[in-house]
């Protein structure tokens, strides 16, 4: 799967840099072409001679060569790559990537790179656990970068914990799996709704919910990677998306989401309704900020919003597949079954707020899929990306 693939391998200043030699050997053995870009600190841990010999390419570290003035174009390099892998990635480089501090060839190349980026962190356990590192990694995830989580084990400090760069064989497997991805949604158009909706009260306030949009965005990415043309109707979220096969339409309210979804659905083969849509909106939207002194005690009158899923269910054509979500706190299965019928869905994804690690804002989820033939399939706790793959597997089966 890696045969003929162009891989930029970014190496930074960590003791795990020695593993880069094994990484290059493994990638080259599988037919990939590897171009090493190393930071100045990286060169303290492994020599460019070793890396150049293993990769059969001169190692790039500086913007230009002092010797003959040769200019290393990070733009050309970014366009050449089928993937960029940064392994090991130190806390410092992760911080620079998250904040666009392009003071070396590696980060500049990262900013120019249009290909998928894989990041394998390596650092001491406390550095890895620090809120700054967590936030920066979260930020990279939100850019669509894939983080290859470090393993637990003995670290260079002799402390034991999480921070050890994942083993080269495993990293190569992640890349290989990525390129192996079946294009089983090629030629299909998928509509996805994601995130919360905000229902305006006045120019500064709204009624919303805790949805982060992570599940819907993971679904959009997986569908696009598997060959689909995706229309992603997103409520207000702090997430980015980089795949050019995803057309993103940003909306704020349930009404805007309803209009965008109804417009896209007739041309779609499937719709996955992942958004946490507000069921009600204030009957009146104040034009000016509501003032406390003028109001005293306040009663809000709410009116129902359109049920997007039910409305698409009513207009569904033969062969179109409609997938819904049910996030429940109690009696999950019976609520999910009732929504499946009521909204004319083909299957529904049930997750419970009672399961630790499932539901809003986390990076993981635990789901069960209930279909209209009455079968129920439960899955263990997984990352939202893996959960998205499981859901897309079922979608592909339905579309056949
Ligand atoms: N949904 C929708 N439009 C709405 C409400 C919900 O499209 N106005 C979709 C959600 O995206 C999800 C499914 O319907 O796929 C179930 O959402 P949920 O909020 O659980 O269902 P409700 O019918 O609103 O039921 P309740 O809030 O009473 O649990």
Automatic annotation (TrEMBL):
GO molecular function, one term: phosphopantothenate--cysteine ligase activity
Pathways involved: Cofactor biosynthesis; coenzyme A biosynthesis; CoA from (R)-pantothenate: step 3/5; Cofactor biosynthesis; coenzyme A biosynthesis; CoA from (R)-pantothenate: step 2/5
Annotated Pfam families: DFP (PF04127), Flavoprotein (PF02441)
GO terms of biological process kind: coenzyme A biosynthetic process; pantothenate catabolic process
Segments of this protein annotated with the region Phosphopantothenate--cysteine ligase: 190-400
Annotated HAMAP family: CoaBC (MF_02225)
Protein name: Coenzyme A biosynthesis bifunctional protein CoaBC
Organism annotation: Candidatus Parabacteroides intestinigallinarum
Gene that produces this protein: coaBC
